Amino acid sequence: MSVNSLHIGIFGRRNTGKSSLINMLTGQDISIVSHFPGTTTDPVKKSVEIFDIGPAILIDTAGIDDLGEIGEKKIQKSQEVIRKVDCAILLIAGNQFGDYEVQLIDQFKKNEVPYLFAHNKNDIDKIAAITITAIKQHSNAEIIDFSTINPADKNRLITALKRIIPTTAFQRRSLVGDLVRPKDVVLLITPIDSEAPEGRMILPQNQTIRDALDNRCVTVVVRESEIPDFLRLGIRPALAVTDSSVFDIVAKALPEDIPLTSFSILFARLKGNFTAFLEGTPHISRLKEGDHILLLESCTHQTSCDDIGRVKIPELLQQFTGKKLYFTIVSGLSELPPNIRDFSLVIQCGGCMVTRKQLLNRLRPFIEAGIPVTNYGMALAYLHGIFRRATKMLERTPVNLPLFPND
Predict the structure, then answer these.
(1) Is 273-396 in the same CATH topology as 6-169?
(2) Considering only CA atoms, which of 56, 52, 110, 53 is closest in space to residue 79?
(3) What is the DSSP string of 179-228?
(4) From the candidate CATH numbers 3.40.50.970, 1.10.10.10, 3.40.50.11410, 3.40.50.300, the one assigned to the domain spanning 273-396
(5) What is the pLDDT of residues 201-216, one digit of tens each?
(6) Band of the pLDDT at 405, cuts 50, 70, 90?
């Protein structure tokens, strides 16, 4: 699943035709279609290229009116999807509109998810004026009356979707494009340690290399041990980007006048609330004995003795503060701990495997609660005493994007 694809969620009651809608948009039998309510259990994701929209991830969710204990769990999973999508289709059928749909509307508004209504099966029962009136009492969203068995309605629905898709979902964002100029030399320092995958680069390194090449830069890739050899060539890079795990080594090896940052910090600026990270990171110095720290990993991966989030950062934090600290780790996009106010600091990974919307919504509850947030790279820069050096160039050229999707 590409993090650069548009994420579209399909929501509604059981048996309104959500799976049929997925199949209509993809032109394939992706989701199981049944006349029996409750066929869809876990959210089903399908990558698809939608004409006039581009690459998209369609997410088919369980019915919001499912029954019993299992039904409640399915509903909960469907609601979790809302925080991860760029836009949504609220599907109704048979002129049914009530509390279930109103609850979804409230969730869309809370998470700032643009959406439209699609009244399905109009070949059997067209949408009634009383239904439209009821919807308008709660929402100004567009309403489409259609049928998944009518091929012409596919284009009508796609046209309506294009009207609600946030412009930021398609905005081309660059990791280094506003920091350098064409023909500049960009030095990328990539350690090969126990966490490095066999025979390949990790995703942040890959994406930064490609971004530098897209911006017509001369890209040089070395290990941290080869920095002296590079410097002997007499080439001065316009920007150096390193893996955060070797910040201390690289900062000592590179002259102070060479701008330096890390892959993780670049991703913090690209996807996260960079202002909140800048403000939250210095709270490391204010941690007290017994404080609880939450570490958020946006993907699941095999851990090692050099794991940056589970091993290195906790060790460095305790050495830096001289305090006994307690750490909770949540990987992937799993549910957050129930009482977030138990935590004195939240440290988010780079977020290379999630969308900007997903990362912003992941951190939003903490920011709104006044809990300091930072990022792996920014925390490591602070712990090694080079926070200002690693962020000052990025402060001067902030990414011109809203902090939250609809701001």
Answers:
(1) yes
(2) 110
(3) T--TT-EEEEE---STTSPTTS--HHHHHHHHHHHHTT-EEEEE-GGGHH
(4) 3.40.50.11410
(5) 788 899 999 999 999 9
(6) very low
In whole angstroms, give the CA distance from residue 289 to residue 16: 54
| Nearest CA-CA partner of 325 in 377, 376, 288 | 288
* 3 state DSSP class of 119: strand
Task: Please give the full DSSP string across 241-281, using - where no structure is assigned.
Answer: EE-GGGHHHHHHHS-TTS-EEEHHHHHHHHHS-HHHHHHHG
The alpha carbon torsion through 348, 209, 246, 181 (nearest 10 deg) reads -100
Q: What's the full length of the chain, in residues?
A: 407
The one-letter code for the residue type at 271 is: K
3-state secondary structure of 112: coil
pLDDT at 396: 57
Half-sphere exposure of 18 (CA within 13 A, CB side): 30
* Closest by Cα among 243, 373, 223, 245 to 304: 245
What is the per-residue pLDDT for 197?
63
Q: Which residue has the higher pLDDT, 3 or 386?
A: 386
Helix 387-396 / helix 263-271 crossing angle, nearest 10 deg: 40
pTM beyond 0.85, yes or no: no
Among 84-98, 185-199, 388-402, which stretch is predicted with the lowest mean pLDDT? 388-402
How big is the CA angle at 377 (ends 209 and 201), to the nearest 5 degrees? 35
Instruction: For the domain made up of 185-264, give the CATH fold.
Output: Rossmann fold (3.40.50)
CATH number of the structural domain 6-169:
3.40.50.300
**Closest to 57 measured CA to CA, from 114, 113, 8, 108:** 8
Exposed/middle/buried for residue 296 (C-beta within 10 Å: 0-12, 13-18, 19+): buried
Contact 290, 326 (CB under 8 A): yes
The position carrying tokens 């279930």 is 100
Q: Tally DSSP H helices, then E strands, for the chain.
A: 14, 14
Over residues 243-263, the pLDDT tens digits come to 999 999 999 999 999 999 999
Q: Which residues pair with 7 in a beta bridge?
A: 57
Q: Where are the domains of the chain?
A: 6-169, 185-264, 273-396
Among candidate residues 65, 63, 32, 30, the one with its CA nearest the CA of residue 47: 30
